[in-house]
Design brief:
The complex is a heterodimer of chains A (201) and B (109).
Chain A lengths: L9 H9 L6 H19 L5 H15 L9 H23 L9 H11 L9 H17 L3 H12 L4 H8 L3 H29 L1
Helix pairs in contact in A: 2-3, 2-4, 3-4, 4-7, 5-6, 5-9, 7-9, 8-9
Chain B lengths: L1 H19 L10 H12 L8 H29 L2 H14 L5 H4 L5
Chain lengths: 201, 109
């Protein structure tokens, strides 16, 4: 994003907000909404995105006094957005508001095809992507909120353990152990789906 | 073993592709206003520059100095000649006699 050299920096706007100019916070929202939206879209279900984005910005506003101004505001905000998504999953798992997705034979066939190394026809690519997405959601639904977030960040997004630890506010050792265990759990879930498919056929 | 690794790798790549394809749609109009409404409801923020935050800051700044002092005192204590101290104490206590009741009350002539 090209930054206007004449526009005030994030730290300056934060200072204004802390001095009582609440409306200045809207400048920060405008400046960083795409970033927050991108993060939230990846981690929470589609219909929950708007609410979670709002929560992330409100949480950021309330946490502004703790923003030291020494670190990068974007990084600080990213961390808040990721933690808001984590909070969303914790709450959702507690109340089980999110319906568990179900699998059909199509998903099992898709899994077999991918694992056997078969190429997917370009015409089938779109529907295949849909099946992959549903299968991934099915597997993630069966993990805890912590495992889900770590898997999202490290396994799917490809972040390093250290980067994920900073975003989640956890220790590096914790993320490393959780990343290993959650990957094992995912493999076990997929193996279970495969075995069920074989038994069914 | 090798085929299992490649199977997992293939799955990982497929899932990563699906995951990165998740696009952020534009949000419904007015979401920004809703955030600002919630922000205004929360009211103006109090800057963290009060007594306790600055005290906490000071404590943390002094923490390394305290650690260094503890280490120095520890080293000093280790190198101290404690045996000599015990000798002095022994000498003093050896010379001490338990006063008798008559001495205490000055009954002896």
């Amino acid at each position: 994003m090209q930054k206007d050299p004449l526009s005030p920096g994030d730290a300056e706007i934060v200072r204004k907000v802390l001095d009582g100019d609440i409306n200045a916070f809207e400048v920060l929202i405008n400046r960083h909404k795409v970033l927050v939206l991108q993060i939230v879209t990846k981690h929470v279900p589609h219909h929950e995105v708007e609410e979670t984005v709002q929560d992330a910005f409100v949480k950021a506003y309330l946490s502004l006094p703790t923003f030291a101004g020494k670190s990068d505001f974007r990084r600080w905000l990213s961390s808040i957005a990721v933690r808001t998504c984590y909070d969303f999953w914790r709450k959702a798992y507690r109340s089980r508001e999110i319906p568990m997705s179900a699998l059909t034979d199509k998903h099992q066939d898709w899994l077999e095809e991918v694992l056997s190394g078969g190429s997917v026809d370009s015409r089938q690519e779109e529907s295949s992507r849909g099946e992959a997405r549903e299968l991934l959601e099915y597997a993630l639904d069966r993990l805890s909120a912590e495992d889900r977030m770590v898997l999202d960040l490290v396994y799917l997004e490809g972040l390093s353990v250290k980067e994920a630890a900073v975003l989640l506010g956890w220790s590096t050792a914790n993320v490393k152990v959780r990343s290993f265990r959650s990957r094992r759990k995912l493999e076990k879930i997929l193996k279970g789906i495969r075995q069920r498919g074989r038994r069914g056929s | 073993m090798r085929s299992r690794i490649s199977e997992n790798e293939r799955l990982k790549r497929t899932f990563q592709g699906v995951y990165s394809a998740k696009a952020g749609d534009d949000l419904v109009d007015g979401w920004q206003c809703r955030i600002m409404r919630r922000v205004r409801q929360a009211g103006p923020l109090r800057s963290a520059a009060g007594f306790w935050p600055s005290f906490e800051h000071l404590v943390w700044r002094l923490a390394p100095v305290c650690c260094l002092l503890v280490l120095l005192l520890g080293a000093l204590f280790m190198n101290m000649d404690l045996d000599r101290g015990y000798d002095y104490l022994g000498t003093v206590t050896a010379d001490m006699e338990r006063p008798t009741l008559s001495e205490l009350y000055g009954l002896e002539g």
